[in-house]
Design goal:
alpha+beta, OB fold (Dihydrolipoamide Acetyltransferase, E2P), five-stranded mixed β-barrel, 4 helices
Length: 165
């Protein structure tokens, strides 16, 4: 009897542990904003260009920013790249690896609250992210130099509804 409870407990623990690193429901909903991480609003959000201006002369800045998703980690949705013609690219990770975004939101607008900063990304990490993004072997092997990047650590993200025109 004790052996059965032990086995049942062990099996339950394994199932729970296997699911512990899985993203929460990251199904895209349409027609309404969708919140990930800490709940935030769009109030006070600045453009990516304004965020870059706030970073001038400082190491980091706490900011709420609005931007367009260019690409998403295709393994878990554990990072995104934003792009803006004036500000360039911003690599975004999520606070404490605590939430993920849907993998099919490229082209969608988001509002994020957190910290913007500049950091050098190693060749190893750049290759890892390229692999996560689904780049080809040739594209990954072409990465040979570290890169200084504008990064963002988001504590909350609001995925805005698609703008259907």
């Amino acid at each position: 009897m004790v052996k059965k409870f032990f086995i049942l407990g062990l099996f339950t623990s394994l199932l729970w542990a296997c699911g512990a690193d899985q993203p929460a429901d990251t199904t895209v909903q349409t027609g309404q904003p969708q919140s990930f991480g800490e709940a935030i609003t769009t109030d006070g959000a600045v453009t990516m260009g304004e965020m870059v201006a706030k970073l001038q002369g400082v190491d980091s800045v706490q900011v709420k920013v609005k931007g367009k998703v260019e690409s998403v980690c295709q393994v878990k949705g554990c990072w995104v790249n934003l792009h803006d013609d004036q500000a360039g690219d911003v690599f975004v990770k999520f606070k404490d690896y605590g939430f993920f975004l849907p993998k099919d939101i490229a082209g969608r607008e988001v509002v994020m609250d957190g910290y913007a900063f500049r950091e050098i990304t190693s060749v190893e990490d750049l290759k890892h992210y390229a692999e996560d993004e689904g780049k080809t072997k040739e594209e990954i092997e072409a990465i040979t130099q570290p890169k200084e990047e504008l990064k963002f650590l988001a504590s909350g993200v609001l995925l805005l509804p698609e703008n259907k025109q």
